[in-house]
Specification:
The protein is an alpha+beta fold. It is built from four helices and eight strands, in the order H-H-H-H-E-E-E-E-E-E-E-E. The strands form two sheets. Strands 2-1-3-6 form a four-stranded antiparallel β-sheet, with no helix packed on it. Strands 5-4-7-8 form a four-stranded antiparallel β-sheet, with no helix packed on it. The longest helix is centred in the middle third of the chain and has 19 residues.
Length: about 190
């Protein structure tokens, strides 16, 4: 770069004033009094005041507040219900789903069939016939005391069981119980006379 080019560049930059402190030291070094230095370069500038420092904990609190507001909004705004495939649905409830079972007994005596009357004494040779009613198809067990009289499946509705129980002389009183899927029905049979 030539001197002419350098002069052009320096003219573009404009005049540069050295800082006040540099000017004051130079004037003081050559013997100018402090009063004359103040008159030449002006009064001492006021020190720059920095704004007070902000506490650093404000930023995390702001972020946490926004996060809590978003979580509250997520909890309050309901999402649309999902649709399940009908094949995948499983019945639910507040416990085991039990069928309702009922047991009715009839007595065949001397060729006639009549409804069993509780407390009535029946004769040896009379046969008990059983009808089970169920709210759903279920596997059942019919027993007298500990003896199993019938075990099998019954459909929903009323079903006449394909078994009969013939009373024997001197038979003690005992309950007849039908059980299935946690439900049961029972009746107590009186003793048979000798």
């Amino acid at each position: 770069m030539t001197d002419a080019e350098l002069d052009l560049k320096l003219q573009e930059l404009g005049p540069v004033e050295p800082p006040r402190g540099v000017q004051a030291r130079v004037l003081t070094a050559v013997g100018v009094s402090d009063a004359r230095v103040a008159a030449l370069i002006g009064p001492e500038p006021l020190p720059l005041r920095m704004p007070p420092a902000r506490p650093r904990w404000r930023w995390p609190i702001a972020v946490a507040s926004v996060a809590m507001a978003a979580a509250a909004l997520y909890a309050v705004v309901p999402s649309p219900p999902e649709r399940a495939q009908p094949d995948a649905l499983v019945p639910r409830g507040f416990g085991d789903i039990r069928p309702s079972l009922g047991l009715r007994v009839a007595v065949r005596s001397s060729g006639q069939v009549e409804r069993l009357r509780p407390g009535q004494a029946y004769q040896p040779g009379d046969t008990l016939l059983f009808r089970v009613s169920s709210s759903v198809p279920v596997d059942i067990v019919l027993r007298r005391g500990d003896a199993v009289l019938y075990r099998g499946a019954v459909p929903a509705g009323d079903t006449d069981l394909p078994v009969g129980y013939t009373l024997e002389a001197g038979e003690a009183a005992a309950p007849f119980v039908v059980e299935g899927s946690g439900a049961e029905a029972r009746f107590d049979m009186t003793a048979v006379p000798r």
